[in-house]
UniProtKB/TrEMBL annotation:
Annotated source species: marine sediment metagenome
InterPro entries on file: Class_I_gatase-like, GATASE, GMP_synth_GATase, GMPS_ATP_PPase_dom, Rossmann-like_a/b/a_fold, ThiI_AANH
GO function terms (MF aspect): ATP binding; CCA tRNA nucleotidyltransferase activity; GMP synthase activity
This protein's name: GMPS ATP-PPase domain-containing protein
Coiled-coil stretches: none
UniProtKB keywords: ATP-binding, Glutamine amidotransferase, GMP biosynthesis, Ligase, Nucleotide-binding, Purine biosynthesis
GO cellular component: cytosol
Length: 244
């Protein structure tokens, strides 16, 4: 849910954001999202060793992403002395391009126990709270930034300004609109499916329902099967299937 909300915020700001699992040359910037794990755990998600050798575009780490960048580049992450959760006041370096046009003291939303306690070489602190001494950092030469707090949630009132500042750093044009995306997807479906029939399972959730609506708007000959994923299944019971 972290990455989906972040992507939604960027789309609301007029820039289309994909959710991907490996870097690609087609993007003008990357956001490494938050997550529930510990970056120092054995099975924790980690950046590829050559990530910062291959990636030449701006990068923003949020929460877990903030910690992951620091650790990958030689910094240090440890469990803090106390958990930091909820609305906090962060002191920000508003000279940073990430925090330009913000107040020097801003309310932010924190949700972490681990924290960065040592920065990689050539990185500088641009934000702190009374509990977290490295709440934000940057390397302007490489255009890499990290924030321990969550700018994507409404409890960080200036969060959209921070994300908008990152858009400016990437030099992305704010031209994306939902209406244009819907039209392009309908055209894509018509081009790829043509006169074929489609049978599709739907759960009633957002993703499958939107996909079904797009197929219908595209005039595709589609038949939908509702899969009741919420019913309990025991013994030889079958999951309820119902045409809609």
């Amino acid at each position: 849910q972290y990455c989906h909300l972040i992507a939604r915020r960027f789309r609301d700001l007029g820039v289309y954001a994909d959710i991907i699992y490996e870097p690609s040359d087609e993007y003008k910037g990357f956001i490494l999202s938050g997550g529930p794990g510990d970056v120092y755990a054995d099975q924790a998600p980690k950046l590829p060793e050559d990530f910062f050798l291959d990636v030449k575009v701006p990068v923003l780490g949020i929460c877990y992403g903030h910690q992951m960048i620091a650790q990958a580049l030689g910094g240090q992450v440890e469990k803090g002395e106390e958990r930091e959760y909820g609305k906090k006041i962060a002191e920000l370096d508003t000279i940073s391009p990430l925090f330009v046009n913000l107040d020097k003291r801003e309310q932010v939303w924190m949700s972490h126990f681990d924290q960065v306690i040592k920065l990689p070489d050539n990185y500088e602190i641009i934000g702190k709270t009374d509990i977290c001494s490295i709440a934000a950092y940057q390397n302007l030469e490489k255009n890499v930034f990290g924030v321990q707090f969550h700018p994507e949630v409404i409890h960080t009132p200036s969060g959209d300004k921070i994300l908008d500042n990152f858009i400016k750093i990437t030099e992305c044009k704010k031209e994306w609109k939902l209406e244009g995306w819907v039209e392009s997807k309908i055209n894509q479906l018509q081009s790829e499916i043509k006169d074929k029939r489609v049978i599709m399972g739907v759960s009633g959730g957002v993703d499958s329902t939107v996909a079904a609506v797009l197929l219908l708007k595209a005039g595709i000959d589609a038949h939908f099967i509702y899969v009741d994923t919420y019913s309990k299944v025991s013994g030889n019971e079958l999951i309820n299937l119902k045409s809609i």
